[in-house]
Write a structure and sequence with these properties.
By secondary structure, this protein is α/β, with parallel strands linked by helices. The chain is about 35% helix and about 20% strand. The chain has ten helices and 14 strands. The protein has helices at about 45-55, 75-80, 120-135, 160-170, 185-190, 205-210, 215-220, 225-235, 275-285, 290-305; strands at about 10-15, 20-25, 35-45, 60-65, 85-90, 95-100, 105-110, 145-150, 175-180, 200, 240-245, 250-255, 255-260, 325-330. The strands form two sheets. Strands 5-4-1-8-9-10-11-12-13-14 form a ten-stranded mixed sheet, sandwiched between helices. A hairpin with a 5-residue loop joins strand 6 (about 95-100) and strand 7 (about 105-110).
Length: about 350
């Protein structure tokens, strides 16, 4: 565990949790063919759940809030792993996502939509989240609230903005810091309706999606352009942007500067959940009072370690190697007009968990 002051627990809200089954193949996935698996892994999942699992593996205090019945396999998995959680029974089975991984790390995912959540369930889920953020015996509130992943049927795209508003009204001047990791309508709905998180964690596609600047591939290829795109979000009220840029590493942008983190390539076994582990690494370092550059370094170290593990296995702090990560400053400069598209950016092709 990191030394330093743990300033309250971290709470994650996962509106669309899942049971994640990962099938390891011995060769390339062949459409329409019969293939044998060489390994199968099953874990409770969904972005917020994965963040909580990664934090728990490193000894950090985290509570996962999610819908789902007590006897659901997702809850059974959380209990078996010793993950603190608060679940809201909904009288319906949670979804099961399926992932196929090839020997070179190529990953194919099939995500189901999840059960429909009506208005009453949404309100109760938010109430449960506020309760989890309050802390034991009305003590110190949570340090962070993480809103992560896709939204199930029946939940409007501004749900994360509604959650952000509710927690800010409840805690006023002692509000937990807010982190958002999503894409598509839930991400756009959060930003367009004033969520303005303390931390936004997009990938290149999502950064292009919410800024209308260039394309995901162009941003991943040009960290300076990506930093300029992230700066437009800072100017709109987001405090910090942690952008993962694929093989180019990760970028951290604040009003005080921008930094790019890179590390030697790892042998990828599964990229599923690597971004969630990156977010967990950042929060782990930030909660210990580390400076921004070290938070970025730990984020990249956590993501790389997760990618080298099978299925949605999450690394512990001891399995990460931040000393192998190089962090360099990136100059912040205005985005060229030619890089800005008219109208909203196209929806990200990345599927969420």
């Amino acid at each position: 565990m990191y030394s330093g002051t743990n300033r309250g627990a971290i709470v994650t809200l996962t509106a669309n949790p899942s049971l994640d089954r990962t099938v390891e193949l011995s060769g390339v996935l062949a459409r329409g063919a019969v293939q044998r698996a060489v390994g199968v892994h099953e874990e409770p999942g969904g972005k917020g759940v994965n963040v909580c699992r990664a934090l728990n593996a490193s000894g950090s205090d985290c509570v996962a809030v999610l819908p789902g019945d007590n006897e659901d396999p997702v809850m059974a998995g959380l209990r078996a792993a010793g993950i603190k959680h608060r679940n809201l029974p909904i009288g319906a089975a949670l979804r099961a996502n399926l992932t196929f991984t090839e020997p070179d790390g190529t990953t194919t995912k099939v995500n189901l939509p999840g059960p429909e959540l009506g208005t009453a369930i949404q309100e109760n889920l938010l109430a449960l989240t506020l309760e989890a953020c309050t802390g034991p015996d009305e003590g110190e509130p949570a340090r962070w609230l993480v809103l992560a992943g896709s939204l199930p049927p029946g939940v409007p795209p501004d749900f994360y903005a509604v959650a952000a508003d509710a927690v800010r009204r409840r805690f006023q001047h002692n509000t937990p810091a807010l982190a958002i990791d999503s894409s598509g309508p839930p991400l756009l709905g959060a930003l367009l309706h004033g969520a303005a998180p303390n931390l936004l964690k997009p990938n290149g596609e999502e950064l292009a999606e919410v800024t209308g600047i260039a394309t995901g591939d162009e941003l991943e290829a040009d960290p300076s352009l990506a930093a300029g795109a992230a700066l437009t979000l800072i100017e709109r009220g987001v405090q910090t942007v942690l952008a993962t840029l694929g093989a180019r590493g990760a970028l951290l942008v604040t009003s005080g500067g921008a930094w790019l983190a890179t590390r030697p390539p790892v042998t990828a076994r599964s990229t599923v959940g690597a971004g969630d582990s990156s977010l967990a690494g950042y929060l782990l370092a930030e909660s210990a009072g580390k400076p921004p550059q070290d938070c970025l370094r730990q984020a990249v170290a956590h993501g790389a370690a997760a990618a080298s593990l099978p299925g949605t296995t999450v690394p512990s702090l001891d399995e990460t190697h931040p000393e192998e990560v190089t962090v360099t400053p990136v100059e912040l400069r205005p985005v060229p007009a030619s890089s800005t598209r008219r109208g909203p950016a196209p929806t990200s092709s990345k599927e969420q968990s």
